[in-house]
Structures are given as C-alpha cells and as structure tokens.
Amino acid sequence: MEFDLARVNEAVAAAVPDREALIFRDRRFTYAELAERSRRLAAVLAGHGLGAHRERDSLGGHESGQDHLAIYAYNGNEWVESMLGAFKARVAPLNVNYRYVEEELTYLLNNSGAGAIAYHAEFAPTLAKVLPSLERKPLLLQIDDGSGEALLDGALDYEKALAGADPSSEALPETSPDDLYILYTGGTTGMPKGVLWRSADIFVSAMGGRNPAREEWQSLEEVVENAKAAGGMRLLVGPPMMHGAAQWASFTALSAGNTVVFGNESRRMEPQDFWGTIEREKVATALIVGDAFAKPLVEDLEKRSYDTSSMVALVSGGAPLSTAHKEAFIDKLGIMVLDAIGSSETGSQGANPATKGNVSTGKFVPGPGACVVSAELDRKLEPGDEEMGWFAQTGRVPLGYLGDAEKTAKTFPVIDGTRYSVPGDRARYTPEGVIDVLGRDSVTINSGGEKIFAEEVENALKLHPDVYDAVCCGRPSERWGQEVVAIVRLRDGATAGEADLSEEAARHIARYKLPKLYVFRDEIVRSPSGKADYRWAKEQAEKG
Length: 544
What we know:
This protein is an alpha/beta fold. Helix content is about 30%, strand content about 25%.
C-alpha cells in the first residue's frame, strides 16, 4: 500500500489532535491546529486555480503535471504549513535558498515555473526586483515577520488569507501517492535542479515511511497506531528548512506523532539559542549539519552549562561531521551521535552511530536500497569487492530532474533492468557490509552543508573586467568542512584585489559562495579542450 504525505498528516492529526505538533518561539500548535491551518492554505491555493492538471501516468520522469509553490522563508510554522498545504491542494512545494541574490532567484523561479510563492516580508524588496523577469505571474503570499515591509502589489497577507479560507476538506481535491515533492539542489547538476519525488516514495525513503525494523508500513492504521503509542518526543531542527535534511527530519517526526521544535533565532546558528531551546523544551533529539554547526556548539558548551538531560541523540546530516566533534558531544552530553548520509537524489541512505569508544567517520551502515555500483555503471558490487565504485540507491528513488531529460538519464541509470540513483559519491563496500563513502567525485564544494558548484563561482568572478581567467575548488576547513578557494589570473596591468573580486561576485551569487581565499597566478592550467585542471587547482590552493 502507498501513502501520500497529505493523507498521513490528516490521519495522524485525527488520532492525536491535542498533542503538540510544532513549537516556534511563543507559538504552539497542536496536530489539529496544524492540520486545519494547512487545509486553509490548501483552500487558498485551490481557490486560485492551483493544483494538478495532468496525472503521473501521462508524464515523463522529468515532467510535472502540477503547479508549484516556492517557499522563500526562514524557519517557522509557516514553512511546515506551506508544505502541508501544498500537498493537500495537489500543488508541489519546493525550497528556495533565502541567501540567493536577484540573478539566482530569477533563475530558480523561472526554472521551477512557480505558480505561487510564500515568502517572508523581509524578502519583498528582492522579490519585487525579480517579478518583472518571471515568465509566469505567481500568486504571492506574504508572511508578516515584523520587518515592516509593505505588501507587494497584488500579494495576499498570509494570515489574513488563511483566516478567510474554508478549513474543511470537502472542497479540496483527493490527493494521490503520485503527487510531487520537489527538492532543489546544486550538487553535481551545475545550476540548481529540481529533484522530482513521488510523495509515496519520499515518505518511505526519508519522511517516516518505515517502521523500527526498517520495513515499509503496510497500512495507514499501522502509521497511526505507532504515532499514538510511540509519539510525543521532541525534535529540535537546527538547520534551515530550505535544506532537505531539515524537511526530512521534520516530516519524519510529524509522521510519528512527535513534536517539531524551532529555535527562537531563525536567521543563523546561535549556540546559546540552540542549547537554551533544548533546555527549555526538554528536547530529546536535535538535528545539525556537520562541522559548521558542531564547532560553535562545542565551543559554547565549553563556556556555559545547560541542562541537556532530556537529550537522547544528536543527529547530523548534509555535511561531514568530524571524529573530534563526535567525541566532544559524546563526552560532554553522554548521548549517541548519529551521522546520517543521503542526498536530494537518493533520500536517506545510511547512518554511522557513534557512542563512547566507538567513533568513526565516513563509514556507514547501509539502509534499505543503499548499495555500490561499479565505476562503469554496469553491475552492482557486493560486500568485499575491492573495486571503488559509486554510492547508489535503488527502490524508492526520484523520478528525475525537472525539465532535464538528459541529466535524469545520466543520474538515474538502469543496470540489469533495475533503476538506480547515482549522484556521484565514490564508495567501497567493505567485507563487513559497511559502505566506506570516499566523497563526491566532482567539483562540488560542500561548505557548512551548502553545496557550491565551482563553475558557478568561476563565472561570477569572470564578470569582473580585470579577471582574465579563474578556477575554483574546495580545500579542507575545520569549521566549514570545505571552503572555496579561487585561483585567479588577472589581465595584464590589472590591479584588482580580493575585495574588488568579491564585491563583483556578490552581485551574482550568494555571499556564502564567495571564496575564502584567493590565489593569484600568471597562468591557469587547462586541458587542450579548455577544461579546468582541478587537480592542479587543488595543488595551488594547498600552496596558498
């Protein structure tokens, strides 16, 4: 049996209506309240003609037959409500990186064909500059965030729109397991691409669709009974909801009848707010993203004391978490640290649990469907094969990339009649049945959980008139996991410095993508075909 995320939410809400589903600052929402607010939003979307227009069986893997809701907001109840409301209107929700500048935002909104945008008022000025360049005029839902920004022309006030909508489900369409969930990612795809998931598949892969034995739930009744009996624990979501790891953790918690908690500070990682929220709300599990989160959190624990006795586990996903930080959390908190691995194109793939005296990094116990395929993509490897292959996933995998049939075929190959997802991580399958993940075999730079595509930074730098050529790569960073290094050749007689180059690049890409280090060279080494020699680039980055 297959389930869609809208139906799961309504069923759990009916079973535990008075249990707290979501906590954000001084706002507390029960399951019944969250379900009602999301139905109201669904009614707003449906009332403006948004929904599903073509069914899945008439579409290719890279195609969508639904309207799309872009969520352009900081963490808060509106993020979860927007996702749920979209599902209940048969509209596909998608994430927008709130750090994007105008050029990037225009690309994403046009690429996704967004029919609606839910956004915090703070972003209204940026959005206003982008709207004239959009190929489709979207429905605008502006969320009051205290910034004082006036409503954009034609926009609806989010709360007023919900208040005036019908909360009943009778007027809403019947949802389907085929309804889409869209997750935009950069990674090895170059410019951001929308990964298309069937609701039923992402539920099983990463949003709570398996029981404790890692088997798929066989009925909606099983899901409900589990929520009634085992739910009630509190999860603190540290990273932004625009990242897949945060969305997956939140929906896994809600599918199990647990409580999602957001910290008071929604714009950045604040260690005191993080630990203070755990202490105040008696959080059992907290989610972070690799060393970029871990380093300031550990440093704060060394300065201050908090009551973390409610904690059972700390989970990290989306970026590498070093052994040193795992050991620090275990020593200071006495809990298990779970390093999770997966990607936008695979869902959850495996975990590396760490406890006192048992800590490692990069080795993962594979989850259902996780495997390794050969470097030539012609066979599946078995435990103990010495060959280095690709970390892959089969079974519940995405349909493809929105609007890109070529990249869909490349990332989701068929091997011996079975369809796989192969995003690009090199891996070996050890004789012990553990997968040793060696890293992304591409020029993707993972900095603090953000995937930065080298060519995107290079293109931004080359827009400065003094730049003759540039190539970018990542180098190890204690805090960020990796940081961007730019190797630059200036034009003869040019005098531009690092600040000048960063100023120009910041007009085209988000500031977190800017190089942390510039290395100036008289020549950039490239292959005869003109391709950058990234091995040489990394050598230059190491020399500094």
